[in-house]
Amino acid sequence: MSSQVAVVTGGTRGIGEAVSIALSKAGYSVAANYAGNKERAAQFSERTGIPAYQFDVSDFEQCQTGVAKITEDLGDIDIVVNNAGITRDRTLHSMEFEQWNEVLQTNLSSCFNMCRCVIEGMRERGFGRIVNIGSVNGQAGQYGQVNYSASKSGIHGFTKALAKEGAGKGITVNAIAPGYVDTDMVRAVPERVLEKIIRTIPVGRLGRAEDIARGVLFLVDEEASFITGSTIDINGGQHMY
Ligand code: NAP
Fold first, then answer.
1. pLDDT over 90 (residue 188)
2. 182 CA → ligand 1 middle, Å
């Protein structure tokens, strides 16, 4: 049997990179998407042998073209990991509409865009695995992040609704809510703020991208067919409810 095909959005850096590598090592045929950092994408592909595909997941037409190209190159898509995400942190009273919109489009509309492009094929074939990367800040809210928190909260609702639609067709849809993970995104947080955050994590450290990849690997397994509509919190104990 040929290996299952997995697409990881934002799959060339940070959490996505670890997910791409973990899936590839587990025998999946992986396509890693990215937005515009060609240098990092080229280094990633050279190092891992995993092909990288540049398209903007906030743009539906680009997703259609990207998915078509991946399907042509690797075959029908069995697994989608909606991982691409950005922050544009500001308090609401100083936030421009553009900062709201860019985050909503990139983090949340991207889930619609990617899932819409693959869902009919998954339904026809009676199999699919979708994992959406949410955030602890979508669950608990975060100062200066109404845009980001709203987008990630939206992902959790999206996940449950689509899980209900896919359940009778062999398609599982789950989310992972990472806590603070040591990637470029978190390295952008001022050091004094980060130190404060780490003090709130019972495990006493930031997460590693591989901690999140482990959860994805678990959820995409064929044997995980009874797990759908769920959210796995991977946050070092920072937030429990
Ligand atoms: P990161 O290091 O900043 O990497 C982001 C990745 O997403 C890059 O590959 C980037 O591509 C890609 N990307 C951004 N906008 C895109 C677009 N419009 N189209 C396609 N790709 C796009 O981020 P990260 O920290 O690994 O975060 C990954 C996911 O986990 C995000 O959804 C984030 O919200 C979530 N998360 C992260 C943390 C954390 O602590 N790091 C915590 C909770 C949740 P380029 O390389 O081309 O820019």
1. no
2. 12
Domain count, the chain: 1
Quickly list DSSP for 20-80. Answer: HHHHHHTT-EEEEEESS-HHHHHHHHHHH---EEE--TT-HHHHHHHHHHHHHHH-S--EE
In a domain, 241, yes or no: no
Residues 6+ apart with CB under 8 A from 24: 30, 48, 49, 50
Instruction: Output the pLDDT for position 185.
Output: 86
Residue 239 falls inside a structural domain: no
- Which of 19, 185, 231 has most ligand 1 atoms within 8 Å of its beta carbon, as the pocket-test mutant? 185
**Confidence tier at 241 by pLDDT (50, 70, 90):** confident
Q: Is 21 in the pocket of ligand 1 (CB under 6 A)?
A: no
Ligand 1, atom nearest to 184 Cα: 2
* Interval 32-53 mean pLDDT: 98
Q: What are phi and psi of 216, to 5 degrees?
A: -65, -45
- Structural domain contains residue 56: yes
Domain that holds residue 86: 5-233
Tell me the mean pLDDT in the region 203-214.
Answer: 97
Ligand 1 atom nearest the C-alpha of 105 is: 18
Mean pLDDT of 155-183: 97
Q: Which of 7, 9, 15, 139 has most ligand 1 atoms within 8 Å of CB, for mutation?
A: 15
| CATH code, domain carrying 187 | 3.40.50.720
Is 12 a pocket residue for ligand 1 (Cβ < 6 Å)?
yes
**34 is a catalytic site residue:** no
